[in-house]
Model the fold of this input.
Amino acid sequence: MSKLVQLNSWHADWNNLKVVVYGLGVSGFSAADTLHELGAEVLVIADKADENLIDVLDVLGVKHQIGKDEQEALELLREFNPELVIVSPGIRPENEILTAASSLGSEIWTDIDLAWRLRDKNGLASQWICITGTNGKTTVTQLVEAMLHAGGIRAAACGNIGIPILDVIRDPAAFEVLVVELSSFQLHYLGHIEPLVSAVLNIADDHLDWHGSIDAYSQAKAKVYNNSSICCLYNAGDSLTEKLVARSSGTENAQAVGFTVNTPAPNEIGWVENLLVDRAFIEDPAVAEELATLEDLEKISVIGPHLMANVAAAAAISRAVGIQSAEIKAALKSFTLDSHRIELVLDQDGIRWVDDSKATNPHATAAALATFESVIWIVGGLLKGVDISPLVKKYAGRVKAAIIIGADRTPVVQAFDDHAPQIPKFEITCSAELVMQEVIEIAKSHAQPGDVVLLAPAAASMDQFLDYADRGNAFAKAIEQRVSKHNG
Done:
């Protein structure tokens, strides 16, 4: 029997367990630090790493090999012969290090798997709520955290968001509930966990270059439902998510609940005109209970179907664990979104300038395009193997002009040529440092009162920017410099 079978608690004997941590981002460092604290023998292997993190490993006395070529790394792995490998979730499963580790008999976990086993560090094991989806998962995770706080529950949002989950596990605050955002990469590797509530918010083409197909991507997302004890939440407007619930295992006692932007059926939470109502967690589903109103969302963001769906999903998750309507309403009234999520940068002369740089795939961008009637659309970047044509075809009627940026411009231009040749398009070919200045000048010359200048690229950002936040910040800075009356 593998020694790992016995390691299901912080208080188990982790001493001298041989572990390779593969990848040294924030989650990889957190895993190495945690395992060192537990007494395991740790070797960190990474292609690159922040110098500050390497310095801390040196202080801790954790062995590491950074920047070695693949053959040297393979030799180190075989020599060390680990019982366990903790992999950073962005690393592809066919990677040679992982293949070699499996051939040595090593188990492959992520920090999520490790955190599940260690969740009892501060006494009673924390309960987990797990949330995934192509789009909206960060917002829903944060909303649920806020609603639980309003209900007096010590909760923390973590996972594929903010603070690494192992740092949350080790926090002396001893959180009762972890609201865990999970990416498709994390779910691909995920082993056995038992959430109270799980949710797949939506499924659309994304990361197909990594997963290989939409079926493989969907199967990874579906793993979030397995072993849920109270509720499996699906999107009533996305039939695939409901089918994934039906295929889940270990969920016989969990209630399957839908969320919707429309009038909810029994066993759903949704919207009746401007009212959010519950027909799932009440004694008589014929009598809906009001949870909130559209007015309660006014401080959050530009209100559109996507935000309404996210609020309905978060409310459903919160109701599943006993949060009351007054607490949901209170949380919504004080909640604010993170930057770069349909964020209004400037409203001047009847023109709105909106930063949705977080829209790194077509599904996320569709949510933004559906919110506005007349759009000057800033689109493009790294497409990650996704076809943008259906998006262009569906929303062409809302697009007044397209400003195309990024490395993968050719397929974007082709999509407009094929499906919306009548829309003026402007291809930005200047250096990365000047992209947003040129974008803003073109947008200024074409925007009229009633228009929305929308940065919703439907693509990743790392071709021209550090990340989506850097892209959004560059957009806002260029607006400040070239549009705002308050800046000359």
In short: The first strand starts at residue 18 and ends at 24. The domain at 114-334 is CATH 3.40.1190.10 (UDP-N-acetylmuramoyl-L-alanine:D-glutamate ligase).
